[in-house]
Design a protein that fits this description.
Length: 208
């Protein structure tokens, strides 16, 4: 590869609180293999994602997907249990559901006319132990170990910005003789209501 700083660094699973809407929570486990300014190559460990499809404009569809997944981890499931890095809380019928932050990051991808919103489930869960969603539109998928090219940016995101950053990442992948193995997807680290200038975003492309 050209002009890459090769590193060996593993992310940690952290827990924390919000500040102006920013979140720190359990984050999907990965190792950073190389860094080139705001580009990286990472190796993600296998994980389970919950996924939901929503139709409509980008902002409306992805916010709806985010809310449906948040409802699921906050107790809208047949077990009536919260899903987080903390021990589950059973939510009784008619009681107010606690707000549980999604594991970060969550993912957005446009496919066949719909927006897919996905989020990694906490590492302690398996397909057998995850509660069945009350929302039948939520499905689960096991992702294998993945090598991923990444571009990071901050601030406001839009379809135009996502497309621009995806083009930049695709160009970087090609310049470094990497072979793409997936379409670009948008990766979000903060809720839709975070102060825009503080939002952390990425674009990911799986590579060989």
């Amino acid at each position: 590869m050209k002009n890459l700083l090769i590193v060996a660094m593993t992310s940690v699973l952290v827990g924390g609180c919000s500040f102006l809407g920013q979140r720190t929570g359990e984050e999907a486990l990965y190792s950073t293999l190389a860094v080139d300014e705001n580009f990286e190559i990472r190796l993600y460990e296998p994980l389970i994602i919950a996924q939901v499809a929503s139709e409509g404009s980008y902002m409306a569809a992805t916010r709806a997907g985010y809310q449906r997944l948040t409802d699921y981890v906050s107790g809208s499931n047949l077990a009536g249990q919260t899903i987080s890095v903390n021990p589950p809380i059973t939510v009784s019928a008619g009681s107010k559901k606690p707000k549980v932050e999604l594991t970060v990051p969550y993912y957005e991808e446009y496919l066949d006319g719909t927006w897919l919103t996905s989020v990694a489930m906490p590492e302690s869960y398996t397909l057998k132990t995850l509660p069945i969603p009350s929302d039948s539109g939520i499905t689960f998928k096991v992702l294998p170990r993945m090598k991923v090219a990444v571009i990071s940016y901050m601030g406001y995101r839009s379809e135009r910005m996502i497309s621009k950053k995806a083009d930049m990442l695709t160009q970087w992948v090609n310049q470094n003789d990497l072979k793409p193995r997936s379409a670009a997807r948008s990766v979000i680290y903060d809720s839709p209501w975070t102060v825009p200038m503080l939002r952390r975003h990425e674009i990911h492309i799986n590579v060989e």
